[in-house]
């Protein structure tokens, strides 16, 4: 009896079976790859559809917050407005000029230091002791 490798007909039959197995395995591997890619695309679509409403809500909320803060004046602006609106008679404070302030301290060396509206009166000499 001949060895199976020596029989040409047997080689053809076995080769066809191996080739069929290879084709079948290759086809299954290709189908698995295509299915994985389809699942990844579907997952990406679902994630995108889930994130779009969340992003829209975040953008709307952020936009609304920035509009609310721009409509409300700052505390400093409110203070400046209230100071500008207050009448001297209503607040009980009399606003005087620089010259009137210096006249309150005759014979003293005085200076106003700072920006207008935020100045401080500085006495440059020591008071005379009696």
What is the terminal-to-terminal distance? 146 Å
Strand content: 5-15%
Could you report the average pLDDT, rounded to the nearest whole number? 79
**What structural class do helix, strand and pairing data support?**
mainly alpha
Shape: rod-shaped
Question: Strand arrangement, largest sheet?
Answer: 1-2
Residues in helix, %? 55-70%
Largest sheet: 2 strands, antiparallel
Q: How many structural domains in the coordinates?
A: 2
What is the H/E string?
HHHHEE
> Based on DSSP secondary structure assignment, what is the total number of beta strands?
2
Q: Extract low-pLDDT stretches.
A: none
Rg calculated over all Cα atoms: 46 Å
Count the DSSP helices.
Answer: 4
What does this structure look like?
Strands 1-2 form a two-stranded antiparallel sheet. It has 130 residues and is mainly alpha-helical. It folds into two domains: 4-71; 75-123, no CATH class. A hairpin with a 6-residue loop joins β1 (110-113) and β2 (120-123). It contains four helices and two strands; from the N terminus they run ααααββ. The model has no long low-confidence stretch (mean pLDDT 79).
